[in-house]
Design a protein that fits this description.
- By secondary structure, this protein is of the alpha/beta class.
- The protein is 25% helix and 17% strand.
- A 7-stranded parallel β-sheet has the order 5-4-3-2-1-7-6.
- A hairpin with a 2-residue loop joins β9 and β10.
- The protein is globular, with a radius of gyration of 23 Å.
- 45% of the residues are buried.
């Protein structure tokens, strides 16, 4: 059993619950293909300027406050109540549809919290693997807009989420799960559901798989045509892929790949989507090639700097969705992670889970506000920056402006310590006579080049609990 769990935790797909999350690693593609469409390249460059985003997991799993979707899956890393049969558990889970009535749904609160934190783009779960739709799809009755919430003016939840975040100038991303465990075209009730894959042989049942392909195409078309401007189509469930994209590297990660291809015709889907949304970024996670416009390592930061677009998607707490009593990362931890991610060339997508009533937990709002107090003072060292060759020395990380005229040094202050009298770093020496500005105050500070490195004196009176210090200067 221990060996099996280790295989799953190191597999291509990250499986998260409150106990396993810290050990799980969502592998990223090691191959990157730059887009050729000028509009996509332009949108990608704009996205790379944003650096900090919010991903919102919200669905049926919020009602009992459990791990998103995965308890439905019959795999041996999943822990469920042993007093209930698997089939009865699925019926109970599907039945949560009758209880999901978020009468206090407040997307404006979510968007304000993200704005206050310094976030610049959104990824919202329009549908997770369980197949429950958080938008008013015409393709299924399994939807927030068809249950107890159907008569609410905001029943078409995704529309109001996207509208609220657009008003705060966010780039808009739609998360969509390629697999759909509620669909009879993916998990056919004729057979048991052995694992996350479709549970029938596509080669023997081509009609059924073609129905699933059309169903998927139609739902993505609804999102692309009915919900205003969308910047990112963020596709999860990377095991749904053409068989030819399963290479030796994928197999080495330990994920079970069926002998048939789960090809859903991405060229057709993306062609339609980009006709509706010119320049749309498509993130077909872990499926390397022309439809993975940026990579998405999960719950981790790559060891080294990368020179192509990527984002670390990480949870604020211990779960993607809402979990009562969840313990959130400290402000310093989030800020330090954001700094490291940006210095290595990526963006940080931070996961938040609204409560079943449609509001964010107050302690999550408070944490986002604390993060924003630092980010909004020091954002010049993050937003719109690009990587530098010498990007790290001890507790200090480096970025530079897109025109390479301004260099930034970001020194992380260890938690439970106070702001020091001075900081020292090696490399990235300011030009002779250059002024150095402490972004926290907007004022110049004294510096000199010493045998130990660049030494920068800090002014008295700085807040004692600052998570980091950011400096701007002209480099040699």
């Amino acid at each position: 059993m221990k060996t099996r769990l280790l295989i799953f935790f190191s597999a291509i797909f990250l499986f998260i619950d409150s106990k396993a999350q810290d050990n799980g690693v969502h592998q990223q593609s090691t191959i990157y293909e730059w887009p050729t469409d000028p509009l996509v390249k332009q949108k990608l460059d704009k996205w790379q300027d944003q650096k900090f985003g919010m991903i919102i997991h919200w669905g049926l799993y919020a009602v009992p406050g459990i791990m998103e979707s995965w308890n439905l899956c019959s795999e041996d890393w999943i822990s469920r109540d042993s007093t209930i049969t698997y089939e009865d558990y699925k019926k109970w889970y599907w039945g949560l549809n009758a209880k999901f009535n978020p009468v206090n749904f407040n997307p404006e609160q979510w968007a304000k919290a993200g704005k206050d934190a310094g976030m610049k783009y959104l990824v919202f779960t329009t549908k997770h693997h369980d197949g429950f739709n958080m938008f008013d799809t015409k393709e299924s009755d399994f939807s927030i807009a068809k249950g107890p919430f159907k008569d609410n003016p905001k029943a078409d939840v995704a529309k109001y989420v996207f509208d609220a975040f657009r008003k705060q100038d966010f780039m808009i991303g739609a998360y969509f799960s390629k697999p759909d465990w509620h669909s009879q075209y993916y998990w056919w009730s004729k057979y048991a559901t052995a694992d996350r894959n479709n549970n029938y042989d596509i080669r023997k049942n081509p009609w059924r798989w073609n129905q699933f392909k059309q169903f998927t195409f139609n739902q993505i078309s609804e999102l692309m045509h009915n919900y205003g401007s969308v910047d990112i189509l963020w596709l999860d469930g990377g095991w749904v892929r053409p068989l030819e994209t399963v290479n030796a590297e994928v197999l080495s990660w330990g994920a079970r790949i069926p002998e048939w291809s789960q090809d859903i015709n991405m060229p057709k889907i993306v062609g339609m989507a980009r006709e509706a949304q010119p320049g749309l970024l498509v993130v077909d996670r872990t499926v390397h090639g022309p439809y993975e416009n940026y990579q998405t390592p999960e719950q981790r930061v790559p060891e080294k700097q990368l020179d192509h677009p990527w984002e670390s998607c990480m949870t604020l707490g211990g779960a993607w969705g809402f979990a009562a009593g969840d313990q959130f990362k400290t402000t310093a931890k989030v800020v330090h992670t954001l700094i490291e991610v940006v210095a290595k060339g990526g963006s940080l997508l931070l996961g938040i889970g609204p409560k079943p009533d449609g509001t964010l937990p107050q302690n999550a709002i408070a944490r986002l506000e604390d993060i924003g107090k630092w980010v909004n003072k020091n954002g010049k060292a993050l937003y719109g920056t690009r990587i530098t060759k010498d990007y790290h020395d001890g507790d200090t990380w480096f970025t530079q402006s897109k025109d390479a005229k301004t260099r930034y040094a970001l020194t992380c202050i260890k938690e439970k310590t106070t702001v020091p009298e001075y900081v020292i770093w090696n490399g990235n020496v300011p030009a002779k006579g250059a002024k150095m500005t402490l972004l926290q105050t907007g004022k110049n500070v004294k510096w000199e080049k010493t045998d130990a490195g660049v030494k920068v004196w800090l002014p008295k009176g700085l807040p004692s609990d600052l998570p980091a210090l950011a400096f701007s200067f002209t480099a040699q």
